[in-house]
Amino acid sequence: MPDARASAAAVFREEHGRLLGALVRRFGDLDLAEEVAAEAVEAALVRWPVDGVPPKPGAWLMTTARRKAVDRLRRDQAYAAKLAVLQAESDRSDPPPPPGADGDLPDDRLQLFFTCAHPALAAEDRLALTLRCLAGLTTPEVARAFLVPTATMAKRIVRAKNRIRDHRIPFRVPSGDELRARLPGVLRVLYSLFTEGYAASSGPDIQRPDLAEEAIRLARILHRLLPDEREITGLLALLLLVHARHAARTGSDGEFVLLEDQDRTAWDAALIDEGRALVPVALTGGPPGPYGVQSAIAALHAEAPDVARTDWPQIVALYDILLTLTPTPVVALNRAAAVAMRDGPEAGLKLLDGLADEPRLQGYHPYAAARGDLLHRLGRDDEAAAAYREALASAGTEPERAHLRQRLEAL
């Protein structure tokens, strides 16, 4: 029984997105798809301990879910539902759809990527729906990821589904120019998910590896589905190269460890090799995209034996390109930090002070912390202490606050 339950959980986790995508394609109803997918897993928990785990568990779940959907629609007296039943039942006699890569389910996840990331949805709703539909997280798990009550997250997910229904957002993959226009939104959702995993916005830990790994898993899926899209390749490379450092970013007690102090032998060499192999692909065949450029920056960090021997001139040059592609204050902040490593703290501080009036950096603690570090390197410790206090007031996680308190104590 425990083995069968564990198998059902593992299969559902792996197959959830594909199962949901196939059901939505067939029935055109996200709520119905979610409900019958859950019922299929419940059936697996009953049958598999008795009959054993089937050779193709994903296909078993799909067949069971389809039958349950037809049964639900048959009980519905609405005319539209009856038509759906006729269509669904006629599908039973149709030839089976082409198998997926593992011979089980056709892969309809791509339409869910674009539906969950539709621009008609609010940004926070896109990310929540992606976690719910593609990562297979439960509503309480999504709520924990956002650090909000479960009831709040449930309302947010319902709101997103209602908007899909009310605006008649199609469950389909856009083509041509529409796909290229929508793809940045899809990638932004995955990058936002990874960012929250890599650098948590609040809470007791500085990292959420579970979220970072989910973002990588989804990016791998998207890369397999659209292998010729270079920015997907760039995003996957970036996530792999950055996540390779996660074990070294915290100490044994969960304390925050700066890049310059990290044990680079603890970096994941396999992830680095995989990410580095993708970088040239992301940068070849046309003008580079933002994720391709960021992946190149991450690769230079991964290749360096230590901070002092990092190729800072090349990193600054890449930030110059990135700033033209995404002229945001955060990119300007990161470029200033790289200039400080190339040309010295005074040059970096001058650039940071030029961003002082940028509204989006007000209350952004990495900006104040970076100023504190450069002021300290210049011997201006009173000003550095003030900058560290400002950063401490807005830092979101306890390890970051502890690190800033240590900086203040050292001064």
Ordered list of secondary-structure elements with their pairings:
Elements: H1 2-27, H2 30-51, H3 57-75, H4 79-92, H5 109-116, H6 123-133, H7 139-146, H8 150-166, H9 176-198, H10 209-225, H11 230-243, H12 269-283, H13 290-303, H14 312-325, H15 329-343, H16 345-353, H17 365-377, H18 381-394, H19 398-410
Helix pairs in contact: 1-2, 1-3, 1-5, 2-3, 3-4, 6-8, 6-9, 7-8, 9-10, 9-11, 10-11, 11-12, 11-13, 12-13, 13-14, 14-15, 15-16, 16-17, 17-18, 18-19
Written overview of the protein:
This protein is mainly α and 411 residues long. It folds into three domains: 2-92; 109-221, no CATH class; 227-310, no CATH class. It is built from 19 helices and no strands. Helix 10 (209-225) packs antiparallel against helix 11. The longest helix has 26 residues, at 2-27. Residues 12-77 form the RNA polymerase sigma-70 region domain. Belongs to the sigma-70 factor family. ECF subfamily. InterPro entries: DUF6596, RNA_pol_sigma70_r2, RNA_pol_sigma70_r4_t2, RNA_pol_sigma_r2, RNA_pol_sigma_r3/r4-like, WH-like_DNA-bd_sf.
What profile does the largest beta sheet have? none
Average pLDDT over all residues: 86
Q: Which residue ranges are poorly predicted, with pLDDT under 50 across at least 5 consecutive positions?
A: 92-104
Helix segment tally: 19
Shape: elongated
- C-alpha-based Rg, rounded: 24 Å
GO molecular function, one term: DNA binding
Region (Disordered): 86-105
Protein name: RNA polymerase sigma factor
Domain DUF6596: 182-279
